[in-house]
Write a sequence for this structure.
């Protein structure tokens, strides 16, 4: 929280206090913190034998800080870069403009802040339980990176619903609150811009699930799958998500699977 970047723009100065208050929280929507069982496959090349381990998986973002930064610079971009109404949300800022530079700085700060929130959650839970972590796998999603393009040129890669999967890079691709997630190692597939999906992804909107599924059906399913859910609502039921094994099969050129994570105790905000 003592990053000098917080003093670089009036907006970041203004957001610092709220960011301090929200540090270590994970927010609402489909953000979760869960304990589960990790099965590392033999030959995982992580330096650990294949077998069962306890895992702690968290998914959340940069809270009010990131949301306010995104809204502010999206408004600026939409005023500056005039596009037809149906594609207005794709408005951009010139990276060589003051607003573009400020946005880049602020977005990266929000990414670091999201990581700090996860670090706090993991630190507090493991400290409280008296456990030491032997391996942390962390990756950003819904973020942009400055990378080298296929011809060595500098490009900005936006990964929305996607996560980095450069050759050898570790990642975690969750399924749903009751299905497997997968620990993966990127294959560095250039045609996918060194990326993979960062989750199963939704197949049903929140309102659609609420109309066709009930809390008691969810509870029955979770008890069959031996998952304890604290908070959460039907809109986040596993039925709302695509089949993770089909998703993994369709991206086998992008990542190797080296282990799996089965959720057992899931904490979400109230549904
Ligand atoms: N292990 C869990 N995975 C979940 C849960 N709810 C959703 N998901 C998966 O995570 C990604 C996150 O996607 P995002 O686009 O919203 O960032 C999603 O695609 C699902 O596959 C859960 O409770 N536990
Ligand atoms: Mn997300």
């Amino acid at each position: 929280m003592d990053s000098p970047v917080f003093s670089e723009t009036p907006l970041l100065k203004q957001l610092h206090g709220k960011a301090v208050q929200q540090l270590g929280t994970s927010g609402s929507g489909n953000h979760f913190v869960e304990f589960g069982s990790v099965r590392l496959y033999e030959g995982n090349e992580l330096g650990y034998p294949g077998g069962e381990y306890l895992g702690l998986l968290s998914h959340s973002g940069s809270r009010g800080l990131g949301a306010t930064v995104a809204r502010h610079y999206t408004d600026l971009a939409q005023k500056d870069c005039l596009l037809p109404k149906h594609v207005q949300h794709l408005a951009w800022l010139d990276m060589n403009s003051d607003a573009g530079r400020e946005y880049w700085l602020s977005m990266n700060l929000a990414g670091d802040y999201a990581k700090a929130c996860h670090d706090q959650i993991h630190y507090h839970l493991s400290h409280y339980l008296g456990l030491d972590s032997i391996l942390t796998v962390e990756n950003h999603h819904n973020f942009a990176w400055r990378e080298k393009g296929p011809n060595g040129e500098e490009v900005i890669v936006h990964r929305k619903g996607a996560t980095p999967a450069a050759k050898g890079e570790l990642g975690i691709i969750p399924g749903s609150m009751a299905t497997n997630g997968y620990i993966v190692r990127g294959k560095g597939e250039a045609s996918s811009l060194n990326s993979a999906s960062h989750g199963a992804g939704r197949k049903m909107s929140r309102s659609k699930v609420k109309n066709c599924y009930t809390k008691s059906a969810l509870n029955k399913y979770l008890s069959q799958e031996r998952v304890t859910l604290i908070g959460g609502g039907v809109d986040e039921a596993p039925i709302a998500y695509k089949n993770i094994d089909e998703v993994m099969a369709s991206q086998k050129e992008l990542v190797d699977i080296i282990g799996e994570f089965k959720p057992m105790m899931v904490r979400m905000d109230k549904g």
